[in-house]
Design brief:
Number of helices: 10
CATH superfamily of the largest domain: Carbon-nitrogen hydrolase
Distance between the termini: 16 Å
Order of helices and strands: EHEHHEEEHEEHEHEEHHHHEEEEEE
Largest sheet: 14 strands, mixed
CATH class of the largest domain: Alpha Beta
Low-confidence stretches: 270-281
CATH architecture of the largest domain: 4-Layer Sandwich
Number of strands: 16
Number of domains: 2
Mean pLDDT: 94
Shape: globular
CATH topology of the largest domain: Nitrilase/N-carbamoyl-D-aminoacid amidohydrolase
Oligomer: single chain
Length: about 425
């Protein structure tokens, strides 16, 4: 006989800290973090999430350049700061950092993120699985374990149907930036590797440190890099921002279920936005989120999104031959399974997208727009659009694209136990 599961309502308070770290300025970035944390403390978050390479800066191009910033999981500035924050705020802290690991085969380097509990203990150390070009330049290794899940315990946050509170372990995961994209930008787009893995695993909480780029950035695919750099400089000048982007001007957005609300917009946000978008060339209105990036992140969670065509796939049994070929590798395709149209139906998951902002080297512009998303598992047979208009995803809050800041929200979601 199948055991009936209890559906529990879980409530978490999540703080997302968006930063603009610059290479060579770990001390200054740490000082800004400490100032922000002193203001976050009164809101008593359960989880505080920071970006990829949150303190070190991101654009390293050789092992020699990144070497001074490498540390083992339980050493270095990220570890010290996370332990301090976790014990000070009695919270879980997540932060990206460059890791060195001395193995029998020699020292290896990873793009990693630590998860530290309220006692200052390491719960999990995740290593980026899908590498971006910049990671490869300094010799970063792929995570040999691939995508992973872990249990994140919390006390007295889950309420049952009778109103009784319970301790709970939430099935959680960390992803880092490029993990959300197709492998090496070469895998079929519709494979949705990261989100398919976690839809199949039943992951309930996904914590995503990022250093995701704005579309204006110079990449190896940019046709005229010199002209693009000039465009970036022109954009920053038009917005009266330094060439490294804004630091120390904060966007605060706090909106809690107990009625607590606090908003602090960047001090130049009413003056910084010429209506001529050509003048700012992709980086206009830096006090607002980058909706194109936000919608792309949502699209890459396609298995978690309602999509009406899955009903036809199921009725016509289109997935069975494909999944037979993939047996042993995966059990779903674009969120569909042989047993029912939508694997994620009637489930919930929270995704915390913590991106960095700012500019490095005058050419790498980060997209900011850190956001909290809830996938509600509803409307499976009614939705066609795979973006923020899809009713199966709720954008609980977003920060600006161009400024450092803090987003704090109460999130409620249901889990079965």
């Amino acid at each position: 006989m199948t055991q009936l599961l209890n559906r529990l309502n879980v409530k978490l308070r999540i703080a997302v800290v968006q930063l603009n770290p610059q290479i060579g300025h770990v001390i200054e970035t740490t000082a800004r973090v400490n100032a922000l944390v002193s203001r976050i403390e009164k809101y008593k978050p359960d989880i505080v999430v920071f970006p990829e390479f949150a303190l070190s800066g991101y654009s390293f191009h050789s092992r020699l350049q990144i070497e001074p910033y490498l540390s083992p999981a339980r050493q270095g500035p990220a570890w010290d700061l996370c332990r301090k924050i976790s014990t000070q705020l009695s919270c879980v802290t997540v932060m990206g950092y460059p890791e060195k690991c001395d193995e029998l085969t020699g020292q290896k380097m990873y793009n990693s993120a630590i998860v530290v509990n309220s006692n200052g203990e390491l719960i999990f150390n995740y290593r980026k699985s899908f590498l971006y070009h910049t990671d490869e330049e300094w010799g970063c290794c792929e995570n040999p374990a691939g995508f992973q899940t872990f249990e994140l315990p919390f006390a007295n946050i889950a309420r049952d149907a009778d109103g009784k509170m319970h301790d709970i372990s939430i099935k959680s995961a960390v992803g880092i930036c490029m993990d959300l994209s197709p492998y090496r930008f070469e895998a079929p787009f519709q494979d949705f590797e990261f989100s398919s893995f976690h839809a199949e695993k039943g992951t309930e909480l996904i914590l995503f440190p990022m250093a995701w780029l704005n579309s204006i950035s110079v990449t190896r695919d940019t046709e005229n890099p010199s002209q693009r750099r000039k465009d970036i400089t022109r954009s920053l000048n038009a917005l009266q921002l330094p060439l490294s982007g804004s630091q120390g001007t904060y966007h605060w957005d706090v909106d809690l279920q107990d009625g607590t609300r606090f908003a602090e917009n960047p001090e130049h946000s009413t003056q910084e936005k010429p209506d001529n978008h050509n003048e700012t060339n992709g980086f206009s209105r830096p006090a607002e989120p980058d909706l194109s990036n936000l919608n792309y992140w949502i699209l890459r969670f396609m298995p978690f999104l309602a999509y009406a065509d899955r009903q036809n796939w199921f009725i016509e049994r289109l997935l069975a031959p494909l999944l037979t070929k993939l047996r042993g590798l995966r059990s779903s395709y674009m969120g569909g399974v042989v047993q029912k149209p939508w694997l994620f139906e009637n489930r919930n998951a929270i995704a915390v997208m913590c991106n960095r902002c700012g500019v490095e080297e005058g050419s790498t512009v980060f997209a900011g727009s850190s956001s909290i998303l809830k996938f509600n598992g509803q409307h499976g047979d009614a939705e066609k659009e795979l973006d923020s208009s899809n009713r199966s995803v709720e954008v609980i809050g977003s920060l600006s694209k161009g400024y450092e800041g803090v987003l704090i929200r109460d999130v409620e979601f249901q889990v079965d136990r």
